[in-house]
Amino acid sequence: MTDSHSLPHAVGIDFGGTSIKPALVQGKTVITHGATINPQGRTAAQTLDAMEAAIRVLCADLPSLVPVGIGLPGFVDSENGVVHGLSNVTGWTEVPVSQILSERLKVPVILENDANAMAYGEWLYGAAANTRNAVCITLGTGVGGALILEGKLYRGSQLAAGELGHTSIDLNGRMGPYGNKGCLEAYVGNHPISTRALAAYREAGIPAPSTECTPLDLTGAARKGCPVALGIWKSIGNELGAAFANIVWILNPDVIVVGGGVAKAGDLLFPHIEDSLKSRTSSVINSQLRIVPATLGNDAGAIGCAALALAAAKP
Amino acid sequence: MTDSHSLPHAVGIDFGGTSIKPALVQGKTVITHGATINPQGRTAAQTLDAMEAAIRVLCADLPSLVPVGIGLPGFVDSENGVVHGLSNVTGWTEVPVSQILSERLKVPVILENDANAMAYGEWLYGAAANTRNAVCITLGTGVGGALILEGKLYRGSQLAAGELGHTSIDLNGRMGPYGNKGCLEAYVGNHPISTRALAAYREAGIPAPSTECTPLDLTGAARKGCPVALGIWKSIGNELGAAFANIVWILNPDVIVVGGGVAKAGDLLFPHIEDSLKSRTSSVINSQLRIVPATLGNDAGAIGCAALALAAAKP
């Protein structure tokens, strides 16, 4: 067992659409959470200034500044450290973030897609530790994913691999954002879950647990035995199992890590995913496969970013 | 341009269910095709004797025996050189082929799944040359596949990756061999193509081009303008495009190589695949993707096996 106090420090920054969370990290441990920064209403230059200041504050008690890793929600060139564009933040078109910050701080600064950073954290220190091939999927408003293959983050030829939420479970099914019929996210994203749950409650003539009918509401209702909520989780498990079966036939991984809010449904959801997946795959590839919830929680991104920064900084 | 005469020799053996084809290979060139061996009606031991003899004959004019690669249709442990079982040949349960033949021949002998061997050949010397990430699919009675990721054959955790024919395009669709509903092979394998074509001809009240209605028959009919045959190819292209879209969202490869008999439909099929794929994916991942027919033909397996044998024999 490595003593985490002997590990090198790095700064990991989880760059969200409304909240940028910098943290000083050592191994799998977040030593200090820095103050959050809201990128909305700031220019990219202003946000970069605030990030630089936050990094300096986090490293104030260290002998020197340490490598920095930043996970961003959008289209990121991790090889050259350039943000092509962000999903929910304007003004971040073709910004050479790594160059700008590394020139100011004189330390390596690496960028990564946020789903990749979280997956790397889970693979190195979390639910996918000690595996060779891991698939990570995050279930929230959007459904994202990332792949660790042969012990390395697999990014694909245009750095766009791992978009598991856009794979289709029905070639003539619900429409996704790219015209992709049967798009998984159109079934198991937070909004479609609410919409279909509300419809199911109406149809059953049972009052919904709330007007929003969020995944959390549905978990609560299902725990009280509500057949409508239980049925929704079963459907979602069936659909996720179908999508996972495709991933498994293609990649034959050791583990599928499921993160995000929907994963909190836990035992209401996971057995249905496993039943569906088993009914759709051969025993050779499903007998040793594990489907597990993510374990690093909200810190996965920062931990993964810090680890990627240290890996990149190695001579 | 490398002069192929300066490249080292290797023996590549394409082990088919009724015909084992050994060849002496140099780079992408088959120097000599050896006599074929029929494994049916022979024990594994007898077949191994025949293979040993064939290898010695192929190398008779060389200064010494050369490394041997064997591609087999079935479940093969390529790391340890053991055949767990073959798809259409009995008596090949847990046979340590590499050990047996390398002890007799005193040269390295490697085994590989046949789809992997073909893909490796196409990646090194054929339709996927000079790419980093290539997906290969073979359309025949069965639908097989293989992945080259980051310049290496990707085999998966139980050496069972790349089973593209078993991925689903419809979670409630046609049943595949493992209970996998919507199994691609149940739509675009040779037998389902014939069955659905015959049904379409009946429904249209048009005589089918033959009682078998093979892919080749359908290609001939479509070239003469038959609307039923043209429609079948369009449907197959749509379905393949849906399956390819999933692969592309997951892996973001440079190229998808399509081999096997169905690929011979050429321009009757490929534009429909591309239309379907484009309608289901984002431009970031489809704009630089190429979908191309395999180019090494029947020699792909032998060429790939020989190249894998040489790669494994390197000190």
Q: What is the compact description of this entry?
A:
By secondary structure, chain A is α/β, with parallel strands linked by helices. Helix content of chain A is 37%, strand content 20%.
CATH architecture of the largest domain in chain A: 2-Layer Sandwich
Query: Which structural class should the secondary elements of chain A be placed in?
Result: alpha/beta
Summed over residues and divided by their number, the pLDDT of chain A gives a mean of: 94
Number of domains of chain A: 2
Greatest interface and its residue counts? A-B, 52 and 52 residues
Instruction: Report the total helices of chain A.
Output: 10
The CATH first-level class of the largest domain in chain A comes to Alpha Beta
Unreliable parts of chain A: none
> Shape of chain A, please?
globular
Radius of gyration of chain A: 20 Å
Overview of this protein structure:
The structure is a homodimer. With about 325 residues, chain A is an alpha/beta fold. Chain A folds into 2 domains: about 5-120 and about 300-315, ATPase, nucleotide binding domain (Nucleotidyltransferase, domain 5); about 130-295, ATPase, nucleotide binding domain (Nucleotidyltransferase, domain 5), CATH 3.30.420. In chain A, about 35% of the residues lie in helices and about 20% in strands. The first copy, chain A, is built from 10 helices and 12 strands. Chain A has helices at about 45-60, 95-105, 115-125, 185-190, 190-205, 215-225, 225-250, 270-280, 285, 300-315, and strands at about 10-15, 20-25, 30-35, 70, 75, 80-85, 110-115, 135-140, 145-150, 150-155, 255-260, 290-295. Chain A has a 5-stranded mixed beta sheet with strand order 3-2-1-4-7, sandwiched between helices. A 5-stranded mixed beta sheet of chain A has the order 10-9-8-11-12, with helices on both faces. Chain A has a two-stranded antiparallel sheet with strand order 5-6. In chain A, α3 (about 115-125) crosses α10 (about 300-315), α6 (about 215-225) packs across α7 and α7 packs across α8. Chain A is globular, with a radius of gyration of 20 Å. The two termini of chain A are about 25 Å apart. The interface between A and B is large, with 52 and 52 residues.
